[in-house]
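[Meeting: bench + compute handoff]

Bench side (C.D.) handed over the final construct sequence. Compute side (W.E.) agreed to return the predicted structure before the next meeting so the bench team could plan truncations. Sequence as handed over:
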Amino acid sequence: MSFLEVIDNYWLYFLVGRYPEGPLGGLALTLLLAALGLLLALPLGLVLGLGRVSPLAWLRWPVTALVYVVRGTPLLMVVFWAYFFLPSVTGVKTDQFATMLIALVVFDAAYLAEIVRSGIQSLPKGQFEAARSLGLSYIRAMRLVVLPQALRHMLPSLVNQFVSTIKETSLGYIIGLAEVSFVATQINIQVFTLPSQIYLTLGLTYFLLCFGLSRLAYALERHLSRRDPFPFVTEVPA
């Protein structure tokens, strides 16, 4: 079987797995998993990031320790904990998709916490102090003044984190999740004569996705750098 015949026979399987006859898989599952993982990790990462810059030491230090522990742990170990440890504690057995999603949310939240922290700390301290001097509480000052401005600094990093999350989904292969690298392996097992071409196609797929998003982050960063340094500050609500 030639490589063109492999593409003709398996391109749909590569894109969506066995869907609609079976569960969604392939490239579509990879993108869905990465998007859901980052989306669900955002609120948790925001809370942890605010905890990292909190003036309350009793809150800041435990959050900092948690972020460093997760960031210092390989994602593979987080996947194993979610797959083997959580069911033994909760008594609830999750499927491969839910397991990988939990692992990605926990792992990405720790990295997003650092993105939020750096975004907040990149602003001049006078922004927060001015908001407080107007009578805003700490929470309202963060919500109305600091976070909208910090978001501008965080956007390129968020896109880059999405790139990392796409690559991280390949670890779902370890627990049998039918994401794109698992599907490519299944195609290779069935064909068995064209491993170089099949895995080159897989690598090219990852490259096109990640390179395209990286260029998007770069373009976004350049676009934002040409704008006013603090475009969100117009009027502070009383």
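W.E. noted at the follow-up: The radius of gyration is 22 Å. C.D. will use this when planning the next construct.
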